[in-house]
Structure formats: structure tokens, C-alpha cells
Design brief:
This protein is mainly alpha-helical and 130 residues long. The protein is built from six helices and two strands. The protein has a two-stranded antiparallel sheet with strand order 1-2. A hairpin with a 4-residue loop joins β1 and β2. α2 runs antiparallel to α3, α2 packs parallel to α4 and α4 packs antiparallel against α5.
């Protein structure tokens, strides 16, 4: 929620577990890789290089374990971090990642424009409604 103090604390606490997958105990569902969660925290802290590195690690782990839905979420977040970082090639890479999401999500039953708040024509972020 943009709380940088809490994000920094959580990042420090979760860092030793970056190589693991996270699960919701009560919901009995995967939350994806801890590395991807660390990417979210780094993104919140404005550390976009670290966020990109975490997301890339998370994607590799999610691919290895076949966590397809989690991988799509991480691809979207990586694209957002790349767009925010704005280095040479980042925008094109972000578009490529989002096109992959658009092509893959329907086969998993994911309504990707709704789930990820993306415009299906432009792949741009849409404002979130309450």
C-alpha cells in the first residue's frame, strides 16, 4: 500500500527465502515465488533495478515449478517495473512480456485485462476502480 517502512522491513525478513515458493496456508493456494514478492517490495521502495532482478528470479522459479498463473502475474509486474525504470530496451521488453501474458492467460482461464487492469488494445495500465 505504498508503506515504505513496512516494505523495507518485510524485504529484510523475506530475503533469506527468495529461493522458495510462498503459499497461503488457509486458502491452500500458491502465492508464487518469494522472489516475486520481494520484487513487489523493491518496487514499492523505488528500487527498480532490484525489483527487475527479483522478478526475473521469480519467473525462473515459477517456470521450474509450473506455477503458470503466478508466472503471468510476475510477468506483468516485471513489465511495470521495466516501464518505470525506462532504460534502453525496457519499453520494448515490457510490451513483449505483456503480449505473452495476453496470449497465454486465456488458456489458463484468466481474464487478463480485468485481473491485471490493462487495456487489451494498448496494453497500458488502466485506472483501478474501487
Amino acid at each position: 500500500f505504498g508503506d515504505e517502512r513496512c516494505a523495507a522491513q518485510l524485504h529484510a525478513l523475506l530475503s533469506p527465502y527468495a529461493h522458495l515458493l510462498a503459499f497461503h496456508d488457509l486458502l491452500r493456494t500458491s502465492a508464487g515465488s518469494v522472489a516475486s514478492l520481494l520484487g513487489e517490495l523493491a518496487f514499492t521502495l523505488g528500487e527498480l533495478d532490484a525489483a527487475v532482478a527479483h522478478y526475473e528470479s521469480g519467473i525462473a522459479l515459477e517456470e521450474r515449478f509450473g506455477a503458470q498463473a503466478a508466472r503471468l502475474s510476475t510477468l506483468v509486474q516485471l513489465a511495470r517495473a521495466l516501464r518505470g525504470r525506462r532504460r534502453a530496451g525496457d519499453a520494448a521488453r515490457a510490451t513483449t512480456l505483456l503480449r505473452e501474458v495476453a496470449a497465454t492467460a486465456p488458456s489458463l482461464g484468466i481474464d487478463w485485462p480485468e485481473r491485471f487492469h490493462l487495456d487489451p488494445r494498448t496494453l497500458a495500465d488502466r485506472p483501478r476502480t474501487a
